[in-house]
Amino acid sequence: MNRILIAEDEPRIAAFIEKGLRSHGFTTSIAKDAQSTMDMSFNSGFDLLILDLGLPGKDGLEILEELRGQGERLPVIILTARDDIQDKVAGFEAGADDYLTKPFRFEELLVRVKARLRNSTVSQPQEEMVLKFGNMTLDLRSRKVKLGRETIELPAREFTLAETFFRHPGQVLSREQLLDRVWGYDYDPGSNIVDVYVGYLRKKLGSNSIETVRGMGYRFRG
Ligand code: CA
User: Fold this and answer.
1) What is the pTM of this model?
2) Fold of 130-220
3) Residue 36: predicted pLDDT
4) Fewer CB within a 10 Å sphere, N or C end of the chain?
5) What residues are neighbours of ligand 1 (ion), with CB under 5 Å?
């Protein structure tokens, strides 16, 4: 049975959600303020948190950031009266899995609760650990590239560059994009470091593996 934590300080809303969820077979608990939400969320065995943003003690977004900052992956649906697009973006950036605005219909909340619970049971871990393109595979766990049957070890930067290509197969990536993803913003855009490292990768993965697209950048061809 699924256990759902409802963080909501308005008793009428909390009772409304609780009643609806219980009638659909869920077990529920209510947290009425920020502190109890924090206390009850960590390693608590809940399967989902429905989080109001306006909670006494601390803003719901801060609660969410703290939870995620400490590695708590409990699925979170924000349920709030704040309906600005900026608020939604902030909610997702803080680590929410879904965002529903008040006033809401219980049916809509229920659909989202069910979808969230389905996702979290089926597809964890969500990150794919092996990327494939052509006859090459890149293993994010062992940090090795396989070319057919041959295994190739790459130093850290080359691996990150290869990973960037694997994540965008067949797409033209500009030098700036590659610089940004692999070396970070603070690199001189006039630097030829990208070209140098593409050269290293070509030596290891094959001279045709990465195509130069004149005036635009590079394309991974596998
Ligand atoms: Ca509230």
Assistant:
1) 0.56
2) Arc Repressor Mutant, subunit A (1.10.10)
3) 95
4) N
5) 9, 52, 54
DSSP letters for 143-167: TEEEETTEEEE--HHHHHHHHHHHH
Distance 103 CA to ligand 1 centre (A): 12
Structure tokens at 191: 């630097």
Residues in the chain: 222
Query: How far away, in angstroms, is 8 Cα from ligand 1 center?
Result: 6
Does 130-220 match 3-119 at the fold level? Answer: no
Percent share of the chain, pLDDT over 70: 93
**Cα(132) to centroid of ligand 1, in Å?**
47
Q: Give which of 77, 24, 91 is closest to 46, Cα–Cα.
A: 77
Distance between Cα 24 and ligand 1 center (Å): 24
Distance between Cα 59 and ligand 1 center (Å):
9
- pLDDT tens per residue, range 3-55: 999 999 999 999 999 999 999 999 999 999 999 999 999 867 899 999 999 99
CB of 48 closer than 8 Å to CB of 77: yes
32: CA distance to ligand 1 center in Å? Answer: 9
Domain boundaries defined on the chain = 3-119, 130-220
Residue 56 Cα to ligand 1 midpoint, Å, equals: 8
What is the fold of 3-119? Rossmann fold (3.40.50)
